[in-house]
């Protein structure tokens, strides 16, 4: 038998309300609807499937206050994380929401009706108090505190839910188990003792060692239960991670581990989060739960110190040990001992023993540069998956953004560079010249400040998408405004390197050598708002390179650019 759920009954609202589904679905069509955000959807899914038992809805004020102040719902049951439906004052007014009303909760991704909420109360939380009590500090360096102040609405809407539909997923559907499904699965396998492992990172040998040790120590099987909802910004995406977990699974002896995905929106709440995670795993039928070093840690606060001590989460679960009803298995960091070629928790090794480790940052850097990842650290099949998602520098896309006056030579540089890169091969090269973009993408735009912004934003969008897919992009618009160039940089840098080259050929020279006579027309007033004539050009504040076609040849400029690119590893051979 799997572990009894928190509060005694698994609140599987989908199963409970199935007999009334048609009736609820029809009613939902007639009600005011609230479209949920991604985070709210994650919470809703785990309320509806019983992952958050004993919750049957979003917290009303009494439950919320109890949880914030003393980790307890109004009826006294232990619960450590506020699960609330936040809305702005305007939305509440616009939708005319009030206590007693029934509203439909809708999925933002496909507009499906998921549940009906009967509003219990609408209340204004004390966000500063919530930040301090739940997350330990009112400091926006903490992602959940930042979310609380910047994203969450100022009011919470509490009330119980009736379920209409499960959320639709299209990825790894076979690995997404509800608590009821996982319980059934354990039953089928004959597992009575299950130790759950929470993770938001790829797993390597140390993690496999840790979980097998936990299993051995408690005569249990292993549930690898990674979070695939929302994790810490900057984490490796869940698609890559799930492929990693799948690759790792056969490394467990004799089918001793099962992989199940958890659609949780993490808060990175350290101690509070550890208690919450334990409750969630208990609801999924696990009997044991591993809490390691710095469990669900958010990193450093705005003063550069850790938000929580490395073992604070372990102390927190220990405090509620009797009430939790799931045995917490605390673990120190597991590290590699090269002299023995084995792994061990650091508290179990003699002083002065030589240890080796590769941090997440170091791993990412090795993936980026294509450097070796040793077999003592990870399995080749896991490394292969990671490498597929982290192409070496030589295979990464980038954008080179040339800015300058018309006839500054930016187009010649762009063309010459394109040919140079094509000669080297290994990557496709795309060019976005000012005039081409104007005729192909922005033909309806003029040259007002606003239209120029739109034009640059379009270039940035296309360059970003191409960069993401591994292309070398050469963009060469005038882009006279710093703000637009900054926005382009921000948009493109999400996907690859961005280099800003200021083609600072003096205006007089651009004008003097203009064979098309475009400056002459502008001077005569035939073209209005022409950059350099009667419209401003702001020189870039922090360009990667400044070149000048009056003083330099195109060939020498291209060489300078190639040297710059080479210095970042982007022109390495695969
Ligand atoms: N009013 C005005 N101001 C500036 N430029 C003008 C104007 N009218 C037409 N042109 C010609 O349009 C070409 C493309 O301009 P851009 O799209 O690069 O300008 S911007 O970046 O959106 O500001 C640009 O050519 P290139 O610089 O050769 O690309 C200009 O010659």
From TrEMBL:
User: Enzyme group, top EC level?
Assistant: transferase
Q: In what residue span(s) does the APS kinase domain sit?
A: 396-548
Site Transition state stabilizer: which residues? 204, 207
Q: Which GO terms describe its cellular component?
A: cytoplasm
The ATP-sulfurylase PUA-like domain covers: 4-166
Q: How is its activity regulated?
A: Allosterically inhibited by 3'-phosphoadenosine 5'-phosphosulfate (PAPS).
Sorted alphabetically, which Gene3D superfamilies does this protein's record hold?
HUPs (3.40.50.620), P-loop containing nucleotide triphosphate hydrolases (3.40.50.300), Sulfate adenylyltransferase (3.10.400.10)
Q: Where is this region: Allosteric regulation domain?
A: 396-574
EC number(s)?
2.7.7.4
Positions bound to 3'-phosphoadenylyl sulfate? 435-438, 516
User: Transmembrane residues, as ranges?
Assistant: none
Residues holding ATP: 198-201, 292-295, 334
Question: Which InterPro entries does the annotation name?
Answer: APS, APS_kinase_dom, ATP-Sase_PUA-like_dom, P-loop_NTPase, PUA-like_sf, Rossmann-like_a/b/a_fold, Sulf_adenylyltr_euk, Sulf_AdTrans/APS_kinase
User: Where in the sequence is the active site?
Assistant: 199, 200, 201
Q: Which reaction does it catalyse?
A: adenosine 5'-phosphosulfate + ATP = 3'-phosphoadenylyl sulfate + ADP + H(+); sulfate + ATP + H(+) = adenosine 5'-phosphosulfate + diphosphate
Pathway where it operates: Sulfur metabolism; hydrogen sulfide biosynthesis; sulfite from sulfate: step 1/3
Q: Name one GO molecular function term.
A: sulfate adenylyltransferase (ATP) activity
Q: Which GO biological process entries does UniProt record here?
A: cysteine biosynthetic process; hydrogen sulfide biosynthetic process; methionine biosynthetic process; sulfate assimilation via adenylyl sulfate reduction; sulfate assimilation, phosphoadenylyl sulfate reduction by phosphoadenylyl-sulfate reductase (thioredoxin)
One Pfam family named in its UniProt record: PUA_2
Compartments where located: Cytoplasm
What domain of life is recorded for the organism? Eukaryota
Summarize the subunit comment.
Answer: Homohexamer. Dimer of trimers.
- According to its UniProt record, which protein family does this protein belong to? In the N-terminal section; belongs to the sulfate adenylyltransferase family. In the C-terminal section; belongs to the APS kinase family.
Q: What does this protein do?
A: Catalyzes the first intracellular reaction of sulfate assimilation, forming adenosine-5'-phosphosulfate (APS) from inorganic sulfate and ATP. Plays an important role in sulfate activation as a component of the biosynthesis pathway of sulfur-containing amino acids.
PANTHER family xref list: SULFATE ADENYLYLTRANSFERASE
Q: Which named protein is this?
A: Sulfate adenylyltransferase
Organism of derivation: Anthostomella pinea
């Amino acid at each position: 038998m799997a572990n009894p759920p928190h509060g005694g009954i698994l609140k599987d609202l989908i199963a409970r309300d199935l007999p009334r589904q048609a009736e609820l679905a029809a009613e939902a069509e007639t009600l005011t609807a609230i479209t949920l955000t991604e985070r709210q959807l994650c919470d809703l899914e785990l309320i509806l499937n019983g992952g958050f038992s004993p919750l049957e809805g979003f917290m009303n004020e009494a439950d919320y206050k109890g949880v914030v102040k003393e980790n307890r719902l109004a009826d006294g049951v232990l619960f450590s994380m506020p699960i609330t439906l936040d809305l702005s004052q305007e939305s509440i007014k616009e939708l005319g929401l009030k206590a007693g009303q029934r509203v439909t909760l809708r999925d933002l991704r496909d507009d499906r009706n998921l549940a009906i909420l009967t509003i219990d109360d609408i209340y204004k939380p004390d966000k500063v108090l919530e930040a301090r009590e739940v997350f330990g500090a009112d400091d926006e360096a903490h992602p959940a505190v930042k979310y609380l102040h910047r994203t969450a609405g100022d009011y919470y809407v509490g009330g119980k839910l009736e379920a209409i539909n499960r959320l639709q997923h299209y990825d790894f559907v076979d690995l997404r188990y509800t608590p009821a499904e996982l319980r059934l699965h354990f039953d089928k396998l004959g597992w009575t003792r299950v130790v759950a492992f929470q993770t938001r990172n790829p797993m390597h040998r140390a993690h496999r060692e840790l979980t097998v040790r936990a299993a051995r120590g408690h005569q249990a099987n292993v549930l690898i239960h990674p979070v695939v909802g929302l994790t810490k910004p900057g984490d490796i995406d869940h698609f890559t991670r799930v492929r990693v977990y799948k690759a790792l699974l056969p490394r467990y002896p004799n089918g001793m581990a099962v992989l199940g995905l958890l659609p949780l929106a993490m808060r990175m709440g350290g101690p509070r989060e550890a208690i919450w995670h334990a409750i969630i795993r208990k609801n999924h039928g696990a009997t044991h739960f591993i809490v390691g070093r710095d469990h669900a840690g958010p990193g450093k606060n705005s003063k550069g110190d850790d938000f929580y001590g490395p073992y604070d989460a372990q102390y927190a679960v220990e405090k509620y040990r009797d009430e939790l009803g799931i045995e917490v298995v605390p673990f120190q960091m597991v590290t590699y001992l090269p002299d023995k070629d084995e792994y061990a928790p650091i508290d179990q090794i003699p002083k002065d023993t030589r240890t080796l480790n590769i941090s997440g940052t170091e791993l990412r850097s090795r993936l980026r540069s294509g450097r070796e990842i040793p077999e003592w650290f990870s399995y080749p099949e896991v490394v292969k998956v990671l490498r597929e998602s982290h192409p070496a520098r030589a295979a990464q896309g980038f954008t080179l953004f040339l800015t300058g006056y018309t006839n500054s030579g930016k187009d010649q540089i762009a063309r010459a560079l394109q040919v140079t890169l094509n000669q080297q091969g290994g990557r496709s090269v795309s060019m976005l010249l000012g005039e081409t973009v104007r005729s192909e993408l922005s033909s309806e735009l003029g040259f007002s400040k606003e239209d120029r912004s739109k034009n640059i934003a379009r270039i940035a969008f296309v360059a970003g998408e191409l960069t993401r897919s591994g292309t070398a992009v050469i963009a060469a618009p005038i882009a006279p405004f710093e703000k637009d160039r900054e926005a382009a940089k921000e948009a493109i840098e999400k996907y690859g390197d961005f280099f800003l080259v200021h083609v600072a050929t003096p205006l007089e020279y651009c004008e003097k050598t203009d064979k098309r006579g475009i400056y002459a027309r502008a001077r005569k007033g035939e073209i209005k708002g022409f950059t350099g004539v009667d419209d401003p050009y702001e020189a870039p504040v922090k360009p990667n390179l400044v070149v000048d076609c009056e003083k330099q040849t195109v060939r020498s400029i291209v060489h300078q650019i190639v040297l710059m690119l080479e210095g970042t590893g982007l022109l390495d051979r695969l």
